[in-house]
Amino acid sequence: MEMKAGLTFACMNLKKLAKILSKREERSADIFDYFRYWKEYFMKIEKNI
């Protein structure tokens, strides 16, 4: 029974880890989009100068 409980808790922790990592990827994608926007913005300004 102890082994079954241990495997159950291990699976639950893996599920939590998967959720955390997916949220982290979403946030990092948003941050990269933000920086990409500003990079393009400043490149347009440099072209106009």
How would you describe the shape?
rod-shaped
Give the mean pLDDT: 82
Strand content: under 5%
Radius of gyration: 21 Å
Describe the structure.
By secondary structure, this protein is mostly helical. 96% of the residues lie in helices and 0% in strands.
Chart the SSEs and their pairings.
Blueprint: H1 2-48
Record keyword descriptors for this entry:
49 residues; mainly alpha; 1 helix; rod-shaped
Short précis:
It contains one helix and no strands. It has one helix at residues 2-48.
